[in-house]
Amino acid sequence: MAYRIISPRIGTPGELWEPEVWVNVHALVKGGFIESTDTKPTPDKPAKAKVSKKAAPDATSAQE
Amino acid sequence: MATSTYLSNPIVTVNSVDLSDQCTAATFTHRFDQLESTAFGDTARKYVAGLGNHEVTLSLYMSYAATETYATLASLVGTTTTVRVQPAAPPDSATNPGFVLTGAFLAELPVINATMGELSTVDVTFVGGTYSVDTTV
Prior knowledge:
Chain A has two helices and three strands; from the N terminus they run ββαβα. Chain A has helices at 25-30, 57-63, and strands at 3-5, 16-17, 34-36. In chain A, strands 2-1-3 form a three-stranded antiparallel β-sheet. Chain B has one helix at residues 69-73; strands at 11-14, 17-18, 23-29, 32-36, 47-52, 55-61, 80-86, 98-106, 121-127, 130-134. The chains are: A alpha+beta, B mainly beta.
């Protein structure tokens, strides 16, 4: 996973950052020093149910 | 002349975070448990090295502002991380070695050490881990 620098205490803000071994990445993210470059996926909207404008065959036959 | 005077040059990083401007003292101890190996026939005590038992103690100004001391250390309590202390700014060299403790454990963090009229400071100690020295770029 790639990370982007937020705080100048880590490096140049905006640059990509690769964690070294034994670096506690979770603590850096929680402390606001870096952020994940992965964009959060937008939740898929449920497909709208198609509404048929045609009257049901039974209803049509009932009118006749 | 075997002296080292530290003014503002040392570089201190904890978990890759540069805390040099919050640090007033750093003690990095390279240590091994000493195991006695004295036996019959010896006329003096003898010792051999046991497990490495290194530690780093830092004196830091406590700041609760964003990306400062507390934000750096709070999430590290009870975990392991890397601490690096270097006598002067990079590059690494034989005369400016970077001392590194990898996988060091932070057991405790004094979250408040307040005295009226004084800047708040805390001492934190990282123990254990693997000791190494960077002397090349």
